[in-house]
């Protein structure tokens, strides 16, 4: 049985939304909901597309040990059901009143002392991103601090005072009022969890299903093939905000825990479709370094905290960053419907511009990534106008398997941004195979690459720039590999 009341914790109290009695819809964003309330207007709308961080809020969620884990997210890209069963923390919750005195949270106090704000428009977003950093990062470094703030823009203060504020408050962290008053919040979150979490919301304008298990999701999918599927909704919400694409019905997979699992088997790893890009990054740091160059420059922390690998693949975007890498990793996608499951190469899954061979009753369960053999090298690189939080102009992933004499046994060269879909450079691959890996090969291969693609010119880049960027990425990847091989121990 499913319920229709959305439940979450705000201001340390249980809040219930009955959409049948409200003027807003389930796919209303958390930002618009908060701004409709009288006491939560600190959150700001800058871009409404995940680019400025002015709308940053923090979600608190129980982990398997019943402790609250905090994540910064962009509320402009979050549909309301995404906060079901969670604690929603806004900038209004940070300071505390003691009698007549307002006690700022350490991150706010540091922003004041280090002059981290001028016009103040971006400040609530920065404060919330800093708050999440304060709560989650055990070993703050300049690198992880800058990474945590890369989703926030400030057009007047400049970043140095904000970084100084972060360094000040994070260098001597004491328990804050969230630690001290956690017990009642945990009780409320457990109370919601112990009820059935699945939601089925029906309003005259919109249907919204939030299944809790994959079986429920597949059953609902089979009955409602015209419903729009979402998970992190970072791609979907942007369409609602910017091009006013309104979906009358949704199946939202973000509650399905089994889709968020990563497991190892004899051949490699299975990554659930609902694994967030940030979780995938943590997995890469432990088990698969080849994932990191792309994940390090993927969007911002606020986006990575909710965007999923299944969503990234299924958008089939020609500039989706993970798709070329999944080609090079020889990944396979597992699809399921009530009739059963099937598995196919990611390369065959993508059929054209933003299209896949997913059947209307199917969902993506996850991705199988085989382990990389010792004589095989996988690398990837992205060219974009700026380093952080930017869409790729060209993205390349390379797989090269070498024999004992460093002759190329097998190669995959996959490119995004060079055609209407992610494509392999088959001519160049054929040219490289069987040849000795050296710098002269790189230069010749880069020349052949021009025969593989005829990229278009668009607002992001010209055709000639894309071609040049692709050539240079190939040369860079070759040079990197040649250097790497030199440092490997010889028998
Ligand atoms: C500011 C910003 C920056 C971004 N930066 C990057 C970037 O650097 N690199 C990059 O590649 N992308 C980027 N993106 C695009 C987007 O965030 C990613 O593609 C993301 O991984 C999509 O995942 P999601 O779960 O949010 O997708 P959703 O919006 O939930 O879904 C996307 C599509 O996938 C389908 N879908 C999702 N899950 C399933 C499933 N399990 N089964 C069947 N269908 C499913 C949905 O129906 C929908 O069509 C960015 C987006 C924003 C807003
Ligand atoms: S309003 Fe800019 S990221 Fe949300
Ligand atoms: S203080 Fe004005 S935008 Fe940051």
Strand order of the largest sheet: 2-1-5-3-4
Binned strand content: 15-25%
In percent, how helical is the residue content? 25-40%
Roughly what is the average pLDDT, rounded to an integer? Answer: 94
Radius of gyration: 24 Å
Number of alpha- plus pi-helical segments: 18
Bound molecules: flavin-adenine dinucleotide, FE2/S2 (inorganic) cluster
The coarse overall form would be globular
Biggest sheet descriptor? 5 strands, mixed
Computed structural class? alpha+beta
Alpha-carbon distance between the two ends: 63 Å
Number of DSSP strand runs: 22
> Which regions are unreliable across 5 or more consecutive residues at pLDDT < 50?
none
* Quaternary structure type: single chain
Features:
binds FE2/S2 (inorganic) cluster, 491 residues, binds flavin-adenine dinucleotide, 22 strands, five-stranded mixed beta sheet, five-stranded antiparallel beta sheet, alpha+beta, globular
Overall description:
This protein is α+β, with helices and mostly antiparallel strands and 491 residues long. The chain has 18 helices and 22 strands. It has helices at residues 30-36, 106-113, 123-136, 142-149, 160-171, 177-180, 182-194, 214-223, 234-242, 277-287, 292-295, 301-304, 309-315, 322-328, 346-349, 426-432, 439-449, 463-487; strands at residues 5-10, 13-18, 56-62, 68-74, 87-89, 96-98, 101-103, 199-202, 207-210, 228-230, 249-252, 262-264, 268-272, 332-337, 340-345, 350-352, 355-356, 363-370, 376-383, 394-402, 408-416, 423-424. The strands form six sheets. Strands 2-1-5-3-4 form a five-stranded mixed beta sheet. A five-stranded antiparallel beta sheet has the order 12-13-18-14-15. Helix 2 crosses helix 5 (160-171), helix 16 runs antiparallel to helix 17 (439-449) and helix 17 packs antiparallel against helix 18. The longest helix has 25 residues, at 463-487. The chain is globular. The termini are far apart. It binds flavin-adenine dinucleotide (FAD) and FE2/S2 (inorganic) cluster (2 copies). Residues 45-48, 50-55, 74, 76 line the site of one FE2/S2 (inorganic) cluster (FES).
């Amino acid at each position: 049985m499913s319920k229709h009341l959305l439940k979450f914790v705000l201001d340390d109290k249980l809040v219930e939304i009955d959409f049948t009695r409200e003027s807003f819809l389930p796919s209303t964003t958390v930002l618009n909901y908060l701004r409709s309330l009288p006491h939560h207007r600190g959150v700001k709308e800058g871009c409404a597309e995940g680019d400025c961080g002015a709308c940053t809020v923090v979600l608190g969620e129980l982990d398997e040990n019943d402790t609250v884990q905090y994540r910064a997210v962009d509320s402009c890209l979050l549909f309301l059901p995404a906060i079901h069963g969670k604690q929603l923390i806004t900038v209004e919750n940070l300071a505390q009143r003691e009698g007549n005195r307002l006690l700022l949270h350490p991150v706010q106090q540091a922003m004041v002392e280090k002059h981290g704000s001028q016009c103040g428009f971006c400040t609530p977003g920065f404060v919330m991103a800093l708050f999440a950093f304060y709560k989650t990062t055990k070993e703050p470094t300049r690198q992880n601090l800058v990474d945590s703030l890369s989703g926030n823009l400030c057009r007047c203060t400049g970043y140095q005072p904000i970084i100084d504020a972060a360094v000040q408050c994070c260098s001597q962290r004491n328990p804050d009022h969230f630690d001290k008053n956690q017990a009642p919040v945990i009780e409320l979150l457990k109370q919601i969890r112990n009820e059935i979490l699945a939601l089925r919301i029906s309003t005259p304008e919109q249907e919204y299903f939030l299944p809790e298990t994959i079986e429920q999701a597949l059953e609902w999918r089979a009955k409602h093939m015209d419903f729009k599927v979402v998970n992190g909704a970072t791609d979907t919400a942007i369409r609602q905000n910017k091009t006013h694409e309104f979906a009358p019905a949704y199946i939202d997979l973000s509650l399905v825990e089994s889709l968020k699992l990563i497991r190892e088997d004899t051949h490699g790893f299975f990554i659930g479709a609902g694994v967030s890009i940030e979780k995938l990054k943590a997995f890469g740091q432990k088990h698969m370094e080849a994932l990191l160059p792309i994940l390090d420059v993927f969007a911002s922390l606020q986006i990575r905290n909710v965007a999923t690998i299944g969503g990234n693949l299924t958008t089939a975007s020609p500039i989706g960053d993970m798709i070329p890498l999944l080609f090079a990793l020889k990944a396979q996608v597992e699809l399921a419907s009530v009739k059963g499951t099937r598995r196919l190469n990611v390369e065959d899954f993508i059929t054209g511009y933003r299209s896949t061979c997913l059947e209307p009753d199917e969902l993506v369960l996850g991705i199988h990534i085989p382990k990389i053999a010792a004589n095989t090298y996988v690398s990837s690189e992205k060219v974009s106008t700026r380093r952080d939080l930017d869409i790729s102009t060209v993205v390349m992933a390379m797989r090269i398997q070498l024999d004992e004499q460093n002759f190329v046994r097998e190669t995959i060269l996959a490119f995004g941004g060079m055609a209407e879909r992610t494509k392999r450079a088959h001519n160049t691959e054929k040219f490289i195979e069987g040849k000795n890996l050296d710098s002269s090969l790189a230069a010749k291969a880069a020349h052949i690459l021009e025969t593989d693609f005829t990229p278009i010119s668009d607002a992001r880049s010209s055709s000639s720039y894309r071609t040049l960027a692709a050539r240079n990425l190939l040369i860079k990847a070759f040079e990197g590999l040649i250097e790497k091989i030199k440092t490997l121990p010889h028998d």
